[in-house]
Design a protein that fits this description.
Length: 393
């Protein structure tokens, strides 16, 4: 088996897997929740979490929430006392099961918003951290995320850049500059990370060069079992946008590369948005199917005998509630007729005491109004950021 044959087969199969996305990516789920990952990458993420045991996993680009659920459920199975923070500009597609998961925190907004970054940094303090970047795939945004989140990653833990197989490596030659170009620019800055190519050994991956391990200062080896010296990967990064062998990346200037990549960027990736909508529609369709099935089940259970039994049950519950209410009323009457309560009522009517009580009630009302005003201000700011983001500001 030659290296060339392995690389060619891996590239061809990955291209077929991608081009049939309606039956591959769009139907892949984790515990019933859609996620846009290859089965091999799902397995690799499980292995990374098991070997590095991160206490906090930060994900940018939540979509339906399948990846966040994958990370949280693996943490739970491994007994890791940890959680997942997932950030997305639009959380409307997120599955209810993900929203209700006790280990998952969802944050709506841009992954590079300074307030959101500050919030995540605070959550990461003192934790063993892993980061997965799967938001806007345009190169300038990925590069900004790399510069922003790489410092959070713990030694021997992983920073993952997803979909670096875009730009003809080997799929989507039109999607340039993308994650792969961002990796070229970032590696030119000599960060304390290395691409762990062992994670690509299953040959089918969306993330060539994207599994990056933070190198420990003490030179500790990579986690997991000992690795063979020689192994084969698809080497997707060696294929350029034209399908031929890619030229080595040109030398970049870290001071100007971000602006250059942003100037070269087009509109947000339409294919990713289309796939996102397909997965979102699938999730909504599943929820609607569950609601319809529940209604059908209820219709079959509605019979005269069942209705009469339900009426009897509700009548008994009402009688019990009335009995409990009468007991509570009797307690109130005993309290109101007691000597301490009568003395309390007289004291409250004294001029100084009544003024103090009124002042306290005004203070409570003002505090409640201030909280309502603050919530309204936060909602307006979020709405404004969302509108400005979609306007490209």
């Amino acid at each position: 088996m030659t290296r060339e044959r392995v690389e060619r087969a891996a590239r061809e199969f990955t291209t077929v897997f991608h081009d049939l996305k309606e039956q591959t990516f769009a139907t892949t789920t984790w515990l019933g929740v859609p996620l846009v990952k290859t089965p091999a990458d799902i397995l690799v993420f499980q292995q990374i979490i098991a070997e590095t045991r991160p206490e906090l996993i930060v994900e940018t680009g939540a979509y339906v929430g399948g990846s966040a659920l994958l990370f949280a459920s693996i943490q739970e199975l491994l007994g890791i006392d940890g959680r997942v923070i997932a950030v997305d500009i639009d959380l409307s597609f997120v599955n209810d099961r993900v929203r209700e998961h006790p280990r998952i925190e969802l944050i709506e907004g841009s992954s590079t918003d300074p307030s959101i970054v500050s919030r995540i940094r605070s959550a990461a303090r003192g934790k063993r951290v892993m980061v997965d970047l799967d938001a806007d795939h345009r190169a300038h945004h990925v590069l900004e995320e790399l510069r922003t989140y790489s410092s959070l990653v713990s030694p021997n833990c992983y920073l993952v850049v997803e979909d670096s197989f875009f730009g003809g490596r080997p799929v989507r030659p039109d999607a340039v500059p993308g994650p792969s170009e961002a990796l070229d620019a970032w590696f030119a800055e000599e960060p304390p990370f290395e691409s762990d190519r062992w994670r690509e050994r299953y040959l089918l991956t969306q993330n060539p060069r994207g599994y990056m391990r933070r190198i420990p200062d003490d030179g500790e080896p990579p986690p997991g079992p000992q690795r063979p010296e020689n192994f084969l990967t698809g080497a997707f990064e060696l294929t350029g946008a034209d399908g031929d062998d890619a030229a080595p990346p040109a030398k970049v200037d870290p001071e100007t590369i971000g602006a250059e990549l942003e100037a070269a960027a087009g509109e947000p990736d339409r294919e990713v948005e289309a796939l996102r909508k397909t997965v979102g529609n699938l999730a909504r369709g599943n929820r609607q199917a569950n609601v319809t099935a529940d209604l059908d089940r209820r219709r079959t259970e509605i019979t005269t005998d069942n209705l009469l039994r339900e009426i009897d049950t509700q009548r008994e519950l009402l009688l019990e509630r009335n009995r409990q209410l009468e007991l509570e009323r009797a307690k109130v009457r005993r309290i109101e007729s007691s000597l301490p309560y009568r003395l309390y009522g007289r004291i409250r009517k004294l001029p100084g005491i009544s003024a103090l009580v009124a002042r306290r009630e005004r203070f409570r009302d003002n505090a409640a109004q201030a909280r309502r005003d603050q919530r309204e201000k936060v909602r307006n700011e979020r709405s404004e950021r969302f509108v400005n983001h979609h306007r490209g500001q």
